[in-house]
Design a protein that fits this description.
It is a single chain. The protein has eight helices and 16 strands. Strands 3, 5, 6, 7, 8, 15 and 16 form a seven-stranded mixed sheet that branches. A six-stranded parallel sheet has the order 11-10-9-12-13-14, sandwiched between helices. It folds into two domains: 154 residues, Alpha-Beta Complex (Quinone Oxidoreductase, Chain A, domain 1); 157 residues, NAD(P)-binding Rossmann-like Domain (Rossmann fold, 3-Layer(aba) Sandwich), CATH 3.40.50. It is of the alpha/beta class and 341 residues long.
Length: 341
């Protein structure tokens, strides 16, 4: 059993990753789980923390929100996991709970068992996009979440929803969860044309549209029976620059607009639009939120939740994290960047 932990940290805002060898962390709270990372996924949020200091309380910083691995140790009160279990988890940037290292410690409620048929690399991409998609529905639109134990069983039931940025990791997760939450809803999405088949054939969107089409508004309204959509979930902050997207609303409908927090100022909306900003840290305000990973585990077991996006493995070993971050900064479309450990 390894006694050392290699962590990749950033000494100051805008810095490069630096490897440091430290003692392996220990279990402090009885409900904690230690995970030996086998794969780490890279998120835009990692770059924003490192480059701009978004939500960074202090430096140096160990980044990393997504990953999968094998349970190395458990606290005395951990009920659902044992040493050797293969898991996916949601990690917390900062230090001992971040995924840019060999070993990380997270609360049991942030862990789910990985299906044996899933690779570590695929499983590593699930956490952040799934969590934020749950916030899009439960907080942003206030829909019912029947697959979340203890979650809201009643709520807003849209007849049609347009998802902006359907080929983002968040958008791809929203498509699937919306289909599960409101099965009869007309699910529409925007993306680059090369991703349309994936959004419709694999993830379950009813129709996908070219995000740059000059006739996008007309196309969306036509698909929704010429009336327009009840709600928009903006997974990429498109509403800040694509102002005419609000014309896709049914003027007589609820006009709900759920916008993800991107680190920028809240997007201002036209009069009559009901706008709510959502973010991953809204978990504390979601009914049944403590069961969010239990819900993911069941969805995976039932094969009800698919891999949101194709995986691009950028390298083997934590030293490849810097390459992955640099690739993310250059722009990534329709895939998730992952480092094998």
């Amino acid at each position: 059993m390894a006694l050392q932990n290699i962590k990749y940290l950033v000494q100051e805002k805008g810095g490069q990753l630096v490897a440091m060898s430290v003692p392996k962390p220990t279990i402090v709270e009885p409900t904690e789980v230690m995970i030996r990372l086998k794969a780490v996924a890279i998120n835009p949020a990692d770059c924003k923390m490192i480059d701009q200091g978004h939500r960074v309380a202090s430096w140096p910083l160990v980044a990393g929100l997504d990953g999968s691995g094998v349970v190395e140790a458990v606290g005395d009160k951990v009920k659902n996991f044992a040493i050797g279990d293969e898991v996916v988890a949601m990690f917390a940037s900062g230090d001992r709970g971040a995924s840019f290292q060999n070993f990380a410690v997270v609360p049991e409620m942030m862990v789910a068992k990985k299906p044996s048929t899933w690779s570590f690399e695929n499983a590593a991409t699930l956490g952040v996009c799934y969590l934020t998609a749950m916030m899009a529905l439960g907080i942003g639109l206030k829909t019912r979440l029947p697959f979340l134990p203890g979650g809201p069983k009643n709520g807003f039931t849209p007849s049609s929803v347009l998802i902006l940025g359907g080929s983002s990791a968040l958008g791809a997760a929203v498509i699937q969860l919306l289909r599960l939450a409101v099965p009869d809803c007309l699910v529409l999405a925007t993306s680059s044309p090369q991703h349309h088949k994936h959004l419709t054939s694999i993830l379950g969107a009813d129709e996908a549209f070219d995000r740059n089409s000059t006739s996008l508004i007309t196309e969306v309204k036509s698909a929704s029976g010429s009336q327009g959509v009840d709600a928009i979930i903006d997974a990429v902050g498109a509403g800040s620059s694509q102002r005419n997207i609000f014309d896709t609303f049914n003027p007589s409908g609820p006009q709900k607009y759920a916008q993800v927090w991107t680190g920028d100022e809240e997007i201002q909306v036209p009069s009559g639009v009901d706008s709510v900003m959502f973010r991953g840290r809204d978990l504390l305000h979601l009914q049944g939120g403590n069961n969010i990973m239990l819900a993911l585990q069941k969805l995976l077991e039932d094969d009800s939740y698919k891999l949101p996006l194709p995986v691009h493995i950028v390298g083997d070993g934590l030293e490849a994290l810097q390459k992955g971050l640099d690739m993310m900064r250059q722009g990534v479309s329709g895939e998730k960047l992952v480092v094998s450990v």
